[in-house]
Amino acid sequence: MSSDPEQEYFSDGLAEELLNRLAQNNSLRVAARTSAFQFKGKNLDVAEIGRQLKVENVLEGSVRKSGTRLRITAQLISVKDGFHLWSETYEREMDDIFAIQDEISTAIANALELELGTAGSEDVTKPTSNIEAYNLYLQARFELATRIEKNMLHAADLFQQAVALDPGFSRAWSGLALTYSLLPQYGPTIPDAEGARKTVESAQAAIKLDPENAEAWVARGYAETLYLWDWTAGQASLQRAITLAPNDANVVNLYGSAMIMLGDFVQAERYERRAVELDPLAAVQYGDLAILMLILNRNEEGLEYARSSARLGPDAVNRISELILALQRTGKFDEARQYLELADHNLHADPGFLAAWWCQYYYEQNDIAHLRAALAQLIELKNRGIGLVPFSSIAFYSAWLDGVDAALPWLEKSYQQRESFLILSDTFYLPERISTDPKWLEFWNRPGLKELMDIRRAHGPFEHVGYWKERPQ
What we know:
By secondary structure, the chain is mainly alpha-helical. It is about 60% helix and about 5% strand. It has 22 helices and 3 strands. Strands 1-2-3 form a 3-stranded antiparallel beta sheet. Helix 10 packs antiparallel against helix 11 and helix 19 packs antiparallel against helix 20. It is globular, with a radius of gyration of 23 Å.
């Protein structure tokens, strides 16, 4: 990769573009970006890289960029014997970048066809003719991949600059859609409603330009499901995405996440495991699989995947939060407390997230006194507008402490805002499992919620789903 840290985004972007092009060849299994990039800058043996990625050949290379001049070297190496199947050096102007990508991906496919009998790759349409827009797009991809709120906000700005320069750049529009579909889950800056609106607008722009843009379809379907509660449209968009890109790790992962919300846990597990298979060194894939296992009360499996997620993403607050929850669900409270303190002092977790995690910590231990104090702090943060504090989280602990009557006012506020957290399967999976109080059941029969609960019931029955438990007498 480039030796200039300021140009790291460019070399990363070029590598990702090549991965995407090779992945379009159905004869090849190509490790996804997150997993492949784990080895960037590390002097590891090719055989070890191949073992960890579960691949038979490794593409490595370097990029040097000076002004508008590029020097790119690439070589394809067999994991089995270290033999170089193909190598080449390119010295071109930046304006030739798409031609270079075509040459490299075609040459690799041809080399593999000779060695392995795979079919050659198809020509790929140039995504944009505006090199400055493409440069901004690569920078945005680099920021989005971190899954850190401030970086994702920067990614959104960069994608917007790219589409301003080239309104016909479908992949920049879909990158913007994906960013806004995820942002409300990573911090308080972008509310659910804003994220939904901007996701759908950007996805629509991308799809109008390229109806087969799977990233746009999955971002739209995810927003339609999580934020807009349009179950019919959401499922149609998600199905379109998975049909177009069944081997895209991000598409598969978000499809699986949507299936969790809909209560189709059989399909959810199938696709979340497939995402791990496609991207075996990506922290987010293990983290989402961990959450599914915890929702299904398969807690030891959840802890195993959560440890993998935290190991691969030790600086990501969301990855540590999954481990904290898994440790609590398996009774390892001392270790969970250590990670809670790490999230607070070293990772500077969102105050709302942190307060909710302390509520969960005391809830899992049936520590009523400390939970009341932690819940009071959570409510204070909500009243002061500090951090991401869903009304539905307050409702959950209020219901457990003082019954469903105490939860209903908070749920009413959550419903009025169409909070995404209200429909997550880890909280109120099916209302009748918590209470048969008529007022409680009436709330869950409201438009949007009733349809979702019917969908979940149709996929069941699933026993012991979610985090709700009986309060000790």
